[in-house]
Design goal:
By secondary structure, the chain is mainly α. Helix content is 85%, strand content 0%. 52% of the residues are buried.
Amino acid sequence: MQPSKRAQLAIFFTVFVDLLGFGIVIPILPLYAKGLALHPAPWMAWVNQSLGLGDPGVFWAGATMVLFSLAQFFAGPILGRISDLVGRRPVLLISLLGTCASYLVLGTAGSIGWVLASRLFGGFTGGSISVAQAAMADSSSPKERSKVLGMIGAAFGLGFVFGPAMAGILSGLDVSHRLLATHGWYLPFLVAAGLSFTAAMLVLVWLPETLNPSTKTHARINRGHAVLRALKRPGMPQILGIALLAMTGFAMMEGTFSLLANTRFGLGEREVGFYLFLPLGLLISVYQGGLVRLVVRFLPERIAQFAGLVMLAVALPFIAFAPWKWPFVLLMIPIAWGQGMNNTATAALASQLTPPDEQGALFGVLQAMQGLGRIAGPLVGSLAFARRGYAAPYMWASACICVALVLALSVIRTAKVVQGEAA
C-alpha cells in the first residue's frame, strides 16, 4: 500500500473510533448532567438563585455542551497551528489522550462541577478532527481534496450511527447498573475513554507523519494569529462565513428536532434517535464515503457548495410542516446530503486556497467557526421555538443558509475572476 493511502486509511479508522466514543457521550450527557445538577455545589446554588432558574438541571446540562464548544473555539486554531510547526502525529496523539482523560473524569465524576471541568478540558484538547483533516490534506493533491476529506465526514457519520446505539445498549447492561450503584462510575463514558485511547494507539503504531519536514521549517517563518492570516487570504472571509452560517442553521435543526417531533407527532427519545441520528448518520456516510467521489467528477467544489446550500435552504422550512410519516422522514435526504456537499466542498475550497504550511491552522479556524455555529444555533433555535412556535427555528435556519448562499455566489464570481486573470 502506498504511504499516502496507508495514512488516509489510518486517519479514517482513527477518526471513526474517536467519533464512536463521541457518539456514545452526546445523546446521554444532558440527562447525566441534569441528574447530577440536582445536588449542586454552593457556588452553583448561588448561580441558580441569582439567575432565578426554575429548572437548573436543564441550564447546567446545556452548559456542558456550550463549555465544550467554547473551549474548542479558542483551542482549535492553536492546536492546528502547533501541528503546522511540530507535525500532525504528535498533536493528534496528545489530542486523543486528552479526550480519553476527559471521558475518564466524566465517567467517574460524581458531581456536576467535575463534569463541567471535564468538558472544558475535553474542548481544549479536542482538536483531533481539525488535525486529522490537515493530515488528510497533506496526503492528497488539491484535486483529490474533496474526496479524501469526504472520508473524514464518512467516519464522522458512522460514529453517529453506531455511537448512540452503543450508548443505549451500554446504559442498560447489568454491569453498568452495578458500577453506578457501587462506585458511581458511568460505563458508557468509560467505554468512550477506552475508544479514544484505542484511537491514540492507532496513531502511535500505524499513522506515519504526513507533514513534510520542509513544510515545518517554512511554517516557522509565518507568524500571526491563524484567524487573522486566514481572513487576509482572498476568498477565505466568504468561506469562513459560509462555514459559520451553514453550521448555525444546521445546529438550529439539530437542537430543536426532538422538540419539533415531540410537539407535532408525540415522539419520544427512542423514536427521535431512530428518525434523526440513524438516518442522518447513514445518509451523511453514504454521501461522504461514496457519492462525493461521483460529485467531484462532474461538479467543481464551488458549484457543489452552492448546490448543497440550496438543498438545505429549501428542505429546512418544509420539515416544520411535512406530514407524518414518509414525507417527514424523506426530508432527511436533502438535509443530510446538502450538509455533506456543503461541508466537504467548503473544507476542500479552504484547503486549496491555503499553502501546505498553514493547513493545520486553517482547519483549526474552520473548526472554530463551526463551533461558534454549534453554540449559536441551539441557543437561537430554542429561543425562537419558545417565543414563536415550532416552525420558527426552521425559518431562521433557512434564513441563515440563504445568507450563506449570497456569500457562496461571491465565491463563484471570485473563482471565475481568478481563472480569467490566469488565462
